[in-house]
Design brief:
The protein is mainly β and 372 residues long. It is built from six helices and 26 strands. The strands form six sheets. A five-stranded mixed β-sheet has the order 3-25-24-23-22. β11 and β12 form a beta hairpin.
């Protein structure tokens, strides 16, 4: 019976078959590769993968989005839709990734369904959890004057260069006990290699960059008077620039970068630590286009500010079409409703109480094998 159905499907016009397949989730498409050689060829083609990804991004539904977190040194993921709609959400372990047991694993970022992780501060991996593929990048330190045993990678970013159709990783290594000595390189998936040293003056960058408008962004210098400066790295031109603190953002404690709805955001506690604000850059590059996206008071989410020991344990993750904001606060997932000025906590199972970094990614068919 199934064979007959497959045979009859071949009589459908090609454009109708493609239109149907474009609307299906990645999990279904992976199964349907087995229907026939022609379907396998179509679903695996570069153009189909690109079009399917573009359409997925435009759909307001979050059915194809998942959350990835680090729990006790292990990568786990859960459905974003279940977090919003179900009373309890379960997380699953990345059992296809053999190094998912490291005590030192960092989520660099996600882009078009691919996840970049850093293991033991020296080894980069790219993963596609949907297709269960992974790839270790070439050694960052090969060909440099910095031996691996005295260098430590402390700044990094992962994104897609639209101009070349290439996925790239930027990383900075600081030599231990050698002040002022550093190496910065860009990895290209197409070339499968690291490029020349690209470092920005004497600026100290740390942690994961936020990728917006083809550029990586870090906040690099926070002064005692709460003034801050940022640096950005353009993937296309491989050049650096700076991001100035907008005048509307004075009086904040330790601002942190995020990405919401494709826009660069800054979030921070506001003196005297009674609320945290999220500012969004509505039009990238236009300085006066910053606006306050949301201001959430700690009493409205039934929480006390987690100070003085830590700052910015509030991290915005995702915005629903309704305007509700999903964020983490300490160890919890909360959904904030701006209209009611209140938040509800979402219960998760298998995300233990040592959750660290958290990212939202879109499921895709993007391959780790570069195009010819």
């Amino acid at each position: 019976m199934e064979t007959g159905n497959a045979e009859r499907s071949t009589h459908l016009p090609q454009e109708i078959t493609e239109e149907i397949l474009y609307r299906l989730p990645v999990k279904s498409l992976l199964r349907f590769k087995c229907v026939s050689p022609s379907w396998r060829s179509l679903i695996s083609s570069k153009q189909f993968i690109k079009t399917h990804l573009q359409r997925s991004k435009k759909i307001e539904s979050f059915a194809d989005k998942r959350i990835i977190s680090i729990c006790k040194g292990r990568l786990k993921a859960c459905s974003l839709s279940s977090l919003f709609t179900e009373p309890v959400t379960r997380a699953s372990f990345f059992n296809f990734f053999p190094l998912n047991i490291s005590r030192d694993i960092v989520i660099v970022d996600s882009c078009n369904g691919l996840i970049c992780v850093l293991v033991d501060a020296c080894r980069f991996f790219l993963l596609n959890p949907s297709t269960r593929e992974f790839k270790e990048l070439p050694d960052f330190f090969t060909g440099t004057t910095c031996p691996k045993n005295v260098g430590s990678i402390r700044a990094y970013g992962f994104g897609f260069d639209e101009s070349s159709g290439d996925y790239k990783v930027y990383a900075v290594s600081y030599m231990i006990l050698v002040i002022g000595s550093s190496i910065a390189r860009v990895y290209s998936l197409k070339a499968d290699s690291w490029g020349r040293n690209l470092f920005f003056k004497d600026v100290y960058m740390f942690g994961s960059a936020k990728f917006v408008s083809g550029k990586f962004h870090w906040i690099t210098d926070i002064k005692r008077n709460s003034k801050w400066e940022g640096v950005c790295f353009d993937l296309k031109s491989e050049t650096f620039g700076t991001v100035k603190q907008p005048s509307c953002m004075e009086g904040y404690y330790k601002p942190t970068l995020a990405v919401l709805e494709g826009c660069l955001c800054v979030f921070s506690d506001y003196a005297p630590i009674i609320r945290f604000d999220i500012w969004i850059w509505n039009e990238y590059g236009v300085e006066d286009s910053w606006s306050k996206y949301v201001a959430i008071s700690y009493p409205s989410i039934s929480c006390e500010p987690l100070l003085p020991k830590a700052y910015n344990l509030v991290t915005p993750l995702f915005v629903l079409p309704s305007g509700e904001v999903l964020f983490t606060y300490g160890l919890d997932f909360l959904i904030y409703n701006k209209k009611d000025n209140c938040a509800r906590q979402q219960r998760t199972v298998d995300f233990d109480h040592r959750v660290r970094a958290t990212e939202v990614y879109t499921e895709s068919l993007v391959s780790l094998v570069p195009d010819d």
